[in-house]
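COURSE: Structural Biology Practicum
ASSIGNMENT: Worksheet 4, Part C
STUDENT ID: 0417
INSTRUCTIONS: Below are two proteins. For each, the amino acid sequence is given first, followed by its structure token string. Answer the questions at the end about the second protein only.

PROTEIN I
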Amino acid sequence: MLKQKLRLVVVGNGMAGIRCLEEVLKLDAERYEIAVIGEERHPNYNRILLSKVLQGSASLDEIVLNPYEWYREHGIALYTGERATRIHAGERKEVETASGLRIPWDRLIIATGSSAFVPPIPGVEKKGVISFRNLEDCSAMIRASETGRKAAVIGGGLLGLEAARGLLNLGMEAEVIHNASFLMNRQLDYTSAGMLRRELERQGMAFRLNAVTESITGVGRAKGLLFADGSRTKADLVVLAVGIKPNTALASASGIVVNRGIVVDDDLRTNVPGVYAIGECAEHRGIAYGLVSPLYEQAKVLARKLCDKPSEPYKGSTVYAQLKVSGVDVFSAGDIREEAVDVAQRSEDGIRGVYRKVTMREGRIAGAILYGDTSESGALLKLIRNEAFVAALSSASGEQGRSGAQEAAAALPDEDKVCACNDVTKAAILMAVTDGGASTADGVKQATGASGSCGGCRPMVAALVEYAKSGGVLSAKSEAKEKKPIEEALCDCMPFGQAGLKAAAREALRALPSEASAELSELRLVPEKKWAEGCEICRPAVLYYASGGLSKNEAEPYSVIRNHARAEAAVHTAGPDGRSMPPSEALSIGSRWSARWKAATLPASVEAAVSDGPGYPAGVLVRDIGLKRCPAGWELYAGGHAEHPVRQGELIGIAHNAEEAAAFGEALLQLYREDAYYGEALWEWFARTGLRSVREALSDRGLRDQLADRFERQTQSVSVIN
């Protein structure tokens, strides 16, 4: 008997909602019967590229992301030109539309996006006043350019500048009206904004700054603007580009909690069971996002939740912006407010028209502004997201002020994401060129999706294409990862290598009935054989993978902690001067680890060392995990090995105090437990995974806290020795 599908309804046919559906279809295409309600009479299109349409560099057809054929191929019922008016969440769950349609649902996603904010200026209702938000607005501006001579654009932010550049391309004069002292004042500083203004003036754009619009003049039709200081300007077209407001009317009418946006938790749930919200209409932790990357991150998290796949909760996004105006490269990310941060690095090259500024807060990278050369944007964005220490700037960008797309492309690690919107790495882009035959940035976009959404990564995509064509290649490790070779079977019992066995064991465990979850003997990785019928090679590995590293058994690997602190009296030995010493933090950390590690299953035996400093050697650099006091706090090392082949541990990071250091080490151990293969020593796992990957994972404070928390929860039944 076929299992009846659940009914999933998406209200909103925009980028966030449809990206969520794409992810759902990848994860479990047969799970839902899907319907989409869209107020516009179009399939899903790339709203971010409307400015490209206005500027004449893209056609309306070229910005369509999902043509009508896509909906038909996936069996999705699409209702265009329909406005949802109420969500019924009682015994009969239905969405009601303005035309009288009632569409039933079991799960519902509100992805209604946002609308242009219309300021309360007298005259905004007149003909010739247009917002710049959708295809209809874009078409109206193109028609207006056929008869009008001059346009006034109210708003000197991203959208206003892109609209003004498009109007110039259409043959109109464009004057930008801004109520601040410099352009893009939320994303730029005075210096970079000045460089931007001079370049746009060179292109023909005019500006009126510190201008407060009093009213829109004209009888019936807009003829110009009157300002608070009594001055005026003439205009045949007035474009409003002063911000957006989340579309929350449907939620408000349906009893869903609304603040500025539709309030959601870390699982993107509203207060109504079964109803979720993502995209520009949603408000998460007090923030409503208006950029594509956060919306896609939300979509991915929600899709995994809807398909019952393991997923970390959504904890917010780092906001960044990139101006899409021909001939101008501008990037801004993080916190660049002068009153909130300090300057870490700043350089300006007036001859080349290049400006670079990186901000910091308490020694950690907080934000960045790039003008003229945005090739470092990907590397800097990663550092900002990870709240990296400012010392990382030297490895990310070499000498202060250096630039060059080729150099940045070569320096970027293979595994780093170039296109955050579409989850495309440097390695995938190089493979598209070297193996896939792509020879241009457009070819890479077609093959991988990179730069196909917001377009902000296009300079780096283009640089990588040139880098690959000039002989730049993947590392052997990255190439092997991209090509995904077939694993050699671990034994004759199971047709899996280590990675395949791990995935199959966990999947088989999920398939067991809940009442049988303790009966691991019933576990089947292949239909014809139970796990217990395996051999001595695969049987212990299956047990470890299936248990998730949480249960004990007599044959499991063990952990050993070696403490060496100046508090040797605490362990009944003499101190360096022959006198008994009081207990130290190093001994306390070692005792805590010793107690907790006894409760943890491990892929292989692990040794750790904790030292109170250089005068008290404990073999920190030749242990799997080493912790040593230093002037800045505590240094954490990993990957050491005292026997052949002898390996020196590598520095993972620095903790400020003993509590943070103990949790840092536990996060590292948890990462090893979750990622390593059974029987793989920590130093072997470290060599396979790579210093960069481990360091970057643990430099993400959110992920590190989650790892440490999981480790603590899984070992909480064990008493800790202080």
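PROTEIN II
(use this one for the questions)
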Amino acid sequence: MLPSLSKEDLRDLLPGPEHFFRRRTIWRLTHDENETCVDRVPLMGLGISALFPPPTFLVSLLFLLLLLLLCPNPSPSPVFSPPSFPSQSPQPQHGASRTVQLPSPLYVLYTDTELEQSRSTFSEKQRAGEEGDYVLSKDLRCRLIRNTVTSMISIKRAAGDDFNYPCSRELTVMAKRLIEYYPMLRDRSQTSRAEWETVKKQLLKRVQNVTTPKKKQGSTPSRKRPRSLSFPSSHETSTDETDESTASTLILERSPPSRYSAPEAEQLCETESPQTQARHYKTLQAMYKTKARPNKMDVAQLLDLEIQARRAFIDSDVTKEQDRPSTILKAYPCFGELDHLMDELRRVLNQGNSHFLTELKTRWGTFCERAQFYGVFKKLMRPPQLDKVKHSIAMMKALPEMFPSPMAPPKKLRHASEAVLHVLESAEDPNTFLQTRPLSSPVVIICETNCILAIGTMPVLIFPKEDIHESVMYLMACYYTFHLTYPKCIATLLSVVQTEVLLDAIHDRDMTTSYKKAMADWKKFI
């Protein structure tokens, strides 16, 4: 029965590739056939039927099952091996693997689909003898160099090596391996001493252009010791305190030494390099050229990083004081926004304190509450009104009289408070007022619906009329940000605000008689 079964019958009885060797063993036992021959030959007369009488179908089937149980799955014998055909994609040459083994660490060659396709194209041209005409594109070459260096640096740092960048020897080995894996990179020019020299130069140039990462210090890093303001007298050689200070200039180099501990001072003295700060400034300029209103957080971070170079530029006194605000606003248009203007005040006074502006507004509110009663006590103000805007205007008009200066205002100004704010009349134009104003100091112009903060003849920004009670802080931010001089007619008032609200010290020579008298009366009242 078994010799009469064909290969198809055995395949039906024992289907699947897992029974292939069992089917072959049964076929060899029941047929005298040479398996090395590809063509099938006729069956011979010898077989298993010579050992047994002609069995029935049931006996043959039982014998087949017994044979399967006794015959384990034999191991494959290498009788026939199909011919191997070469793959279409080129294999790396001898020794051109995708890893570069050095004593430490193990680098990996960069590759992608386009680079592998380029290798395939080069291999085809090489078989045709046209490899000399094939050149790797500039984009692929730059991508290969850039990603190779990035991979080497990442592996180098992950290995915990003391040197974060690959050395010249490692770049040489990598360049040799690159031209083996990518033979189209070989430099066959006569001027080159070696085929891998050009690749090594490109790798070395890329390594030199990599910027060393710095430790993250937060959104508002403390980079420099805060500086206080001082007001030198116009008569610096005079020691008589009866000579009043007629002008006050901001000096940003002094600060109380006992305000910070040693670790804090060391941390605050960390600064960016001039080259890095120049890149920050270019980034800031590009943001305002491409976007009308850039993200405030991004701008604030760049201003934090670039503060040293910016303050050196502002404090250099290269331009006249009248032209300084326009020059600074042209270089830093961000200061035309109220948030960045107040944030610059924080950087100058106390950059490390992120809650400085909140604390400043609280101190100003407390100062105004006391000044209300102080003005009523000196008969300069009426009791508080219900209208907050009108009450704030009355407060600002009375402040120069609460803390008077010995110098009278210019003749065109009717009152010393005109150096702080001006309320437009119904038919008055703000531009006309600014052009005829005798002072170039910051001023708040109150219109019917809003308020304008201007410096000299130039409007800087507009803010709601409901925020008029904080306008004195806006004026102080302008004096600090643009490094301006206090007007003589309100120098005492601004000095009091500087020491009592901003908590910033002034120079000893600026503690004039009028300032001392005003502070004595104020301390006595509160």
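ANSWER KEY EXCERPT:
Q1: Residues 33-58, 73-95, 226-270 have pLDDT under 50 and may be disordered.
Q2: The beta strands are 99-101, 106-108, 421-423, 442-446, 450-455, 458-464.
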